[in-house]
Predict the 3D structure of the following.
Amino acid sequence: MTCLRVLLVVVGGALLLAACGTVDRGQPTTSDDFFVRGSSFAQNGNYERAIADFNSALELDPNNPEVYNNRGLAYAMQGNYDHAIADFDRAIALRSAYAAAYNNRGRAYAMQGNYERAIADYSQAVDLNSDEAEFYHNRGFAYYQQEAYDQAIADYNKAVALKADYALAYNNRGLAHAAQGNDERALSDYSRAIALVPAGAPSYFNRGEIYMRLDKTEKAAADFEQFLELNDDPEWQQKARDYLRTLGQ
């Protein structure tokens, strides 16, 4: 079964620290100033300028783990995972109980396909902060990639128990149920994800696949049509149109 796995893990957020304070006018002069402005750039998707400001912050204060964590996230968003991991390593070396940095390093490893190391980091993050739903979700996704579906479902269960409106976790738990052939549970999870985020295109696609497998042609077609309205990725649009042709639509 075709799933939007890569799309979904990218959507799952990393933990970008919110910097305290603002730089209202003039040029930043302190490490904190550069950190605040760099974090703002990163949150707005301007990763080159963010990295430049984080570099300046570290020149003035080379032992700030939060700056390394945020610069690592900026590198990760550029797809530069080796640099990201090096920064998360440094953040953890400076603050051994830095749960967010373990989580973020785990995501970088996951994006490289190194799921064993990702799971080790997510587990460390969980040990440090067992109340953060994202840590369980991310570990569940890594287990899913290893086809360890029972472990994945257990982590997704914990994620939604901690965060009842966690649409991504419902969707991804649906993928794990579908991989086990448990179509009814998959349908329930996809429908829950859609109820929480009606504009969440991947859940329509995934639910449409299950309806196809169950020979519920009209419902499958409706979901693929809705997916086409919400998603503008040419490759995935073509997949949905191919399914609709198969359904005779």
